[in-house]
């Protein structure tokens, strides 16, 4: 397959490989390979194994966590980058780090934390929190705080899924807010869409929340591949036919992303990274037909999976746990670990508490909540009758 002009890819030298704290070059590892390793070895990356993707701890160990989702995004993104001739190591690094800022309990947890912060005039944004993690919270090196990632990776963390206003976010000025991100960063949001769309279909059917008949009737992209697989494998178990259809659905999305991105770059006559940056719109995209089909499938998942009654209990629990602990710790920051309590004077209790909660896994925050409930119950009960007088 034809590749994009080599000038569209981010090179392994130049300004985008610079780090906030200068380091000598490694004898055999390019800069973005080093970034990838630093991300994988970060504590925040490991914690993704304990954070909800869609299904919480109540269901099964078979379902995706935030970590396994991240690995699937990285696989898809690297394949696309390799096919288009882009920088594979940068693309993989961005895929591995793209969800590192998510709090526990998936998007439900993120909404609860953002709503709690809004009461203090603040917001929670998982992209910007991810930047705080790699620049501030990870402490692994004697010479600097954070992971000291390259400028290209830090820019991609900020801009891979949305554009930020320079007026609203002057603190992000170094990340070229008036320009498009490189194609390697643009691909991450598309690979993320492909990964969770297909994986959530898989987990939703495995959990017996989604109906095969409904999906075939309402999701044209799925039916496009299920019908011929059903005909090809008439005596095969339904789940295996489903797997064959879903695999082809994923391949169709990936192939369309590759073809449409190539078409847009060629039509725009873009041949350099500067051309990518200055183009009026992002160049990594699905074709109009595929985008329509993708949105139809996404709407189906929202209606039948993400807002399913089966998951409502988990959503309510997540909201209650995060909201309760947030307000309890803001009111009494002395309850925080010493390392976090020390940050309150500089950043304020609401932001520090949000940072603390965002770093937790599902199981850890549930444990802290159980402790809080027990302590609160004991305080409400007052001294026991057999206490010394």
Order of helices and strands: HHHHHHHHHHHHHHHHHH
Helix/sheet category: mainly alpha
- Distance from N terminus to C terminus (CA atoms, Å) equals 85 Å
Average pLDDT reading? 94
Q: Give the count of helical stretches.
A: 18
Radius of gyration over all CA atoms, rounded: 23 Å
Question: Your description of this structure?
Answer:
- The N and C termini lie far apart (85 Å).
- With 389 residues, the protein is mainly alpha-helical.
- The chain has helices at 31-40, 43-47, 66-84, 88-97, 106-118, 126-137, 151-159, 183-206, 212-218, 220-232, 238-268, 273-278, 288-306, 309-331, 338-341, 344-347, 349-358, 362-381.
- It has 18 helices and no strands.
- Helix content is 61%, strand content 0%.
- The mean pLDDT is 94.
- Helix 4 (88-97) crosses helix 8 (183-206).
- The protein has one domain (6-377): Hypothetical protein af1432, CATH 1.10.3210.
Key features of this structure:
18 helices, mainly alpha, Hypothetical protein af1432, 389 residues, globular
How is this fold's topology laid out?
Elements lengths: L30 H10 L2 H5 L18 H19 L3 H10 L8 H13 L7 H12 L13 H9 L23 H24 L5 H7 L1 H13 L5 H31 L4 H6 L9 H19 L2 H23 L6 H4 L2 H4 L1 H10 L3 H20 L8
In short:
With 389 residues, this protein is mainly α.
